Every structure is written in structure tokens, then in C-alpha cells.
Amino acid sequence: MKESPLFWPAYLKGNTLFVLDETLVPKQLKYVKVKNTDEAVKVIREMKTRAFGQFLVVLSTFLLELERNPELNGEELREKIGNIAHSLNRSRPTFPFAEVTGVVVHWAQGALDAGQDVRAAVLKNVHGYLQGIRYRRMERVQRIAANIKSGDSVLTHCNVSGELAMAAAICLQQKKDVQFYCTETRPYFQGAKLTYWELKKMGADVTLVADNAIATLMADKMVNKVIVGSDRNCANGDFANKIGTYQIAVLAKEFKVPFLVLTQPSKKIASGADIPVEIRDEKELLEFNRKKVFAGKVKGLYPGFDVVPHNYVRKEIAINVH
Amino acid sequence: MSTELKDVVLIQGVFRKDFFGALSQCKKDVVVLEGRPNLEAAHDACKHLQKAKIVPTVMADNMAGYLFSKGFVKEIWLAAQANDKAGAMCEIGALILAVLAKKHSVPVFTFPAGKKNKPFGKPADLQKFNGQSVVTGKVKAFVPLNEWVPAKYIKKNYE
Q: What is the pTM of this model?
């Protein structure tokens, strides 16, 4: 399967974690060197990595710290792992990092309680977990492609970490005639920079639209399907995703366009009302490339995410967690 | 950060100047959407609101839904370049607000626009933001600048 660089945007080499700086794509494919937990938190907080990349960085940070602290004994390692988890959990509020880091803490504690080698147990489990995720995402790419029919015109928003682009490549191999529209996705332009680029790189027919053009696309029947990702999922099917997703969902319902969402099923949070939405610094909206966008006194409000109620979702394309 | 917004009038488009005089009587928070691709609507609105001693809050075009989902939006004002019994021709993005307003039972009003747009922009318009490069190289883009808002979404057209 043809792989997008955004599908697996971080890797560990020796005692350094290399993280693709997604803010520089497509101008450069540059990897930031991460040497410790603080630096990992920084790349997450500064959105140099996002979506799946964040989870990969979270898990890889444990591997990194184990690599960099060979002298620690079992008890010290368990404590270290707890501290790493605590730091990562606080990096961005909307993401369920605690669900992932909690599993690693559990592995460390379990190994310690059983008198096993904590380092070996955690290394084995994290590597196995990552391999499992990789396999399941590959498998989901196939199911995304299966949900796209020849003649479809698909609207997407922000970026789903390589999966849609890889599904598009499969559609091309299968000789399906498919068009994609991707939104710019202000304020970081992940749609214009990442999604447009990776779909084009895969050979797909892709058209860029401003975030405010989605109603015309639907009213004029230029799209017949919406596929978006999700950053956090609830037991009742509600989900959080990049800001802008809610209005796409409402429009899709109004214009009877099927709305499909890629999910990571979780029962840890009951409904969307329980998801804390991160409000980011207004400067990220009111400045672009460090230059003020508006003259005079203005305020800005930048909610990072939307919460979408489950009744807008026609179909979930879930990661197989079993 | 303006997270204290609770009672919002959301405006969209380039309005005739007298609109801002009327808006200055309004006691609500005024939120202005950027208005891609050229941001003219937001630049123009911010300038006139500041003259009227109103500090506007700017949000990106994809953030209106968030305000609706929180129940903060009380009125929508759209700049209409033309209207008749069937609806109004407004700047791109207006139909998003109209549909959100219908879903959240918020009234939509139109007021005459201060300018008329061409129907479409150029793909190159999306390569830049505020005069600075977003993506390099040619892009295939669809850049409508206006859209029709059917009358069923509009409470009243003001002349």
C-alpha cells in the first residue's frame, strides 16, 4: 500500500524521537528532534504534530525515556512512567491522552507487582501496541476505500493523518472515478497544506475550497459524501474534531449529504457535553506568519474543536479495537 | 481571549456604511467572520466598528458553528447584494450561517451590501492569506464569492 508521510509521522532512532513538523509541510518534510518528555509536550502543544501524530508521539515518548534512562530500576521506572504520563496528559485538554498513558502506567505497575522486568515489559507492550495500531489503521484505509464509490465527490475537512489519501490511492488502483474537495481549515490551513498535498501526491483529483464555500458545494450538489476524522469519541457516538466540523455536519443533514466519520471507539466519556474544548491563544488567529491580520483593536476567539452530536453521523468507520 | 461571549450578533459581508451606525446602538457582542478569500468583509467591518467604539471579535469562517452550538448567537446579519421574494444574494458563507440559524432558531436579517462581488475568484486567491503565501505552486481550487440564500432562511430584508 502506498503510504503517506502523514500516516506514521514520528519514529524513534537511538535515543532521539523524530517528529514530522506538520506546520512546515508541504514546503519541507522536516523532522523535529525530540530528546525528552518536555520536548514531546512542546511539539504537541505547538501543534507541530497533531491528530494521530500526537498519539504516536505520546506512546513513543515512553520508549524514548526508557532508552535514555537505562540506569533506573523497576520502582524508579514505574515512577518515571507515571511522571511522563502526567506531563503528556496536560499537553492539550481535548485529547484523551490519559486513556493511552494510563495503559502504559498499568503495564509498568503490573510488571512491578508481578516481579517482572518493568523495562522489558513496557518496551514489549508499547511496541506491540504500536504494531497493532498500524495494522488496524491499514485495515481501516481499505474500509474507507470500500465506502467510496466510483462517481463519488467527497468533501473532507482538516486532515485525517494519511488515511483518506491512502484510500484515494486504492480507489485509483481500482479505477474508481472519484473527486475530492478539501477545506482550507483555518487558522493553520491543514486542509490546504496537508490534505490537498497528500491527495495530490497520491494522484487523486482534488480541489481546494475556502471553509466558507461548503454550503454552496452541498446546495449545488457538487459533493455527495462527507468524510472527516475524529479526535475524541464518546460512548453515545458524539465526537470532537477540528473546528468547523459541526457546521459541516449541520449542512450535510440539511442538504441530505451522507456524513461519515473515522472513529476510535471509546466508552471512557459518556457524551460530547463532557468533552473539554480547548480555547487557544487568540494570537494564533489574529496573526499570520507573525504579522497582524487586522488593524486597530480587535479580539479573537479560537476554539480548537467542535463537538458533533451522534445524530448527524450517517456512518462510523471505526478502528477495530477487538 | 473572548470566551466571555454569550450574547452575539454575527455579521457577514461588506455592508453599506449606515449599517454600522445602527449597529452601534446594539448592546450585544459583535462577532465578525474573516471572509475568505480576501478578508475584505472583516477588514471593512472592523474598521467601521472601531469608529463606532465597538471592539469586534474576529473568528475564522469555520468557527461560526461553535458559537451556535454553545447557544451564544442571537442574531445574524448578512450583507445582501440583491434580494427579491425568493431570497438574497450574499457573500460566500452566508448560507452556512442561514442553515445554522434555522437549526438553532436564530433570526437572519439582511441589509444592503456596500459592494458587489464578482461571482468567482481565482484559484490563486487561496494560495495567499493576508498577502502571505499559504501554499506554493498552482492549486486547483473552486472559489465562489457569492451564494444565494433562499427566503425560507431569512426573517426580514432591510432596505
A: 0.94
